[in-house]
Design a protein that fits this description.
By secondary structure, this protein is mainly alpha-helical. The protein has 5 helices and 2 strands; from the N terminus they run H-H-E-E-H-H-H. Helix 4 packs across helix 5. The model has no long low-confidence stretch (mean pLDDT about 90).
Length: about 140
C-alpha cells in the first residue's frame, strides 16, 4: 500500500485540499457578507445606541458581563436583558440606577457608575438594539 502512495500523489492531495479549503472559505465569507445586513440590525443604530456602546466600553462592562456570548462570565449575559426585563428600557435604567454605592457587604455586586440620564438612556438603547440582532436564538434561554 505505501509503495503505491508517491510523493507526487501526496503533493497533489495537499494542493487539491488547499485549493478546496480556500474556495470553501471564500464562498462562506461571501455568503456571510450577503446575509449580514438582514441579520445585524444595523438599520436601527441611532446616536443613542452609539453613545450606549461608548458607555459600555468606557465602563468596561464586558469585564464582568457577556454580550452575545463575548466577555467575562462573572455577571449575567446581557444580550437578551431587554426581553428579560419585559421589553422595557426604563427597567434597564432602574436596575443600573439601583446599584448601592457601597456595594452589598459579603456579596459581589455591580458598582454604582453614577451615569447621567443621557448615558443611562444610551446604555438602555444599546442593550435594546443588541437584543434585536438575529442571533439564531442565542443565548439559548431567557436567563442568559
Amino acid at each position: 500500500m505505501s509503495e503505491s502512495f508517491t510523493k507526487s500523489m501526496a503533493r497533489n492531495i495537499f494542493i487539491g485540499g488547499g485549493v478546496f479549503s480556500f474556495l470553501l472559505f471564500i464562498g462562506l465569507t461571501v455568503d456571510t457578507m450577503e446575509r449580514l445586513p438582514e441579520r445585524d440590525n444595523r438599520h436601527n443604530i441611532t446616536p443613542e445606541v452609539v453613545l450606549g456602546k461608548k458607555v459600555w466600553e468606557d465602563n468596561n462592562c464586558v469585564g464582568c458581563h457577556t454580550i452575545l456570548g463575548e466577555g467575562a462570565y462573572f455577571a449575567p449575559e446581557l444580550g437578551n436583558v431587554y426581553q428579560r426585563l419585559g421589553h422595557s428600557t426604563e427597567a434597564i435604567k432602574m436596575v443600573i440606577k439601583s446599584r448601592p454605592v457601597e456595594g452589598v457587604p459579603g456579596r459581589r455586586s455591580m458598582p454604582q457608575f453614577n451615569l447621567t440620564e443621557e448615558e443611562l438612556e444610551g446604555i438602555a438603547q444599546f442593550l435594546k438594539w443588541t437584543s434585536e440582532i438575529n442571533t439564531n436564538n442565542w443565548p439559548p434561554n431567557i436567563q442568559g
